[in-house]
Amino acid sequence: MTLHATIDRVTDRIRERSAKARTAYLAKIARQAEEGPRRAHLSCGNQAHAYAAMPDKDEMAGTRKPNIGIVTAYNDMLSAHQPYEHYPDLIRKAAHAAGATAQVAGGVPAMCDGVTQGRPGMELSLFSRDVIALATGVALSHDTFDAALYLGVCDKIVPGLIIAAGTFGHIPAVFVPAGPMPSGLPNDEKSKVRQQFALGEVGREALMAAEMASYHAPGTCTFYGTANTNQMLMEFMGLHLPGSSFVNPNTPLREALTTAAVTRAAAITRLGNDYLPAGEVLDERAFVNGIVGLMSTGGSTNLILHLPAMARAAGVILDLEDFHDLSESVPLMARVYPNGLADVNHFHAAGGLGFMIGRLLEAGLLHEDVRTITGGGLDQYVTEPKLRDGRVEWVEGARETLNDKILRPASDPFAKTGGLKQLSGNLGRGVIKVSAVAPERHIIEAPARVFADQEEVKAAFKAGAFTEDTVVVVRFQGPRANGMPELHSLTPILAVLQDRGLRVALVTDGRMSGASGKVPAAIHVSPEAADGGALAMIRDGDIIRLDAVSGTLSCLTAGFETREPAQYDPSRSSEGLGRELFAAFRAHVSPATEGAAVVV
């Protein structure tokens, strides 16, 4: 199938924009690769330190077996990461069987946005991505690894690991998923109880019971938020083994896929004949494929922040216009909560990523001629794994959807576009995700109510202050102000107001969760209010127009730009729960339009 004109045009534009940075990047990783196996440059004393605790240290010192570094985000507070507890033992066993060795190079932090939602700790969440990249850099700095296995799933962890994998682009990289938990209480029922609690119709006991029935086992949360969007991306970008993203934890197939990932990592080092450095996988085509996956599945808006930061680590420069243009040409082929009633287990059973990649390739909407960890192109990812005599075999995946309420082909999608719009106007640049927003709510024009954080919005809601159409403006929520926490706890409140018949919208320099849904929300507005952005000039009563049809975000009140801007009070976010430690991050972070990054 001929490549779609928009995919071709956007890829060329990214390639041209990135030419200088990408050329320098490839030269850098080529120089590093030319030095040969890294352990060869260590002194005997250096090597003895590295191998002292290994049972097979004599083999390490005297052979050219590949040594695989494990970078793990294991902790047993995150349900998605708890399965990683026993992966190192499995990986070491699989490495030995493949004629290699493996060591845990280091651990990286992994915080749970589900725990910190609405809490001060959430103000560290986005910056944890940069900490993860830095911690991975420390882990790999020992210079003893021929390939790396990256064990991570959730919101900031995979992007942070990708930034590190790009930085160490001469080292082959294989990402190893852990899979989603089995289905529990349906997400729409959980959401209903949340709204009932916001209205005072049920108490905390009922709310807790619903939450515990939804989040109930090891594995990723089953809604299609940032964590599961990450897993989709790794498959679309060729960094997972095909079909491995949504296999449940603690199953024989899950274990066999992990073993297969280790075998593949051992095969693609510079010591063999199939060397595949991570930097060559992470090219502009891979990132375009990732964005196409984001649009076609209705994935998390958080990836609009993460993908530019991930790409810059590999010398690829993305812009909001790339997301917008690709969204306009890529159909929405999946309905997974919050864009539908199904969860990721239902999505996987209906045909999953293999079905989607196959149909997108047929429509010319993906680059097939990319490098992937399989050694082949993206056509390898239309297969699905099956367990045969304890080993994984890949067979042809579903060519037809097994549930057209969840998955549809590109020729008969749920919507003709991916539902992401770039917004621009006199309030700055931002984005809106409209795939779950009713068409009659794509344009909202109403008076502003201005708040400095989501707690003020909650207080106003409890006081009955919202009685007319309103654009809720929550400012000083950008990366430079307070680390750009998710404003997820506003979702039930705004949904209640909308269900009451009000026309409401959110405008913010902050971000919403990957679980944001039916209420129109202009997010990531840049420049942020704390950095001289126009949101600092908005006052209560100003008329705001959010137009997702024309892609504009404007204040219609004449002369608002000439006002003295409101000033952010840094004491609101400077202390407590470790926020003191991140002052340097807040001072040096890039704008949201460039990924809100510190280390790239």
UniProtKB/TrEMBL annotation:
GO molecular function: 4 iron, 4 sulfur cluster binding; metal ion binding; phosphogluconate dehydratase activity
Location of the Dihydroxy-acid/6-phosphogluconate dehydratase C-terminal domain: 405-596
UniProt pathway annotation: Carbohydrate metabolism; Entner-Doudoroff pathway
Catalytic activity: 6-phospho-D-gluconate = 2-dehydro-3-deoxy-6-phospho-D-gluconate + H2O
Cofactor list: [4Fe-4S] cluster
EC assignment: 4.2.1.12
Family designation: Belongs to the IlvD/Edd family.
Keyword list, A-Z: 4Fe-4S, Carbohydrate metabolism, Gluconate utilization, Iron, Iron-sulfur, Lyase, Metal-binding
Binding annotation for [4Fe-4S] cluster: 154, 221
Organism encoding this protein: Paracoccus lutimaris
Biological process, per Gene Ontology: D-gluconate metabolic process; Entner-Doudoroff pathway through 6-phosphogluconate
Protein name: Phosphogluconate dehydratase
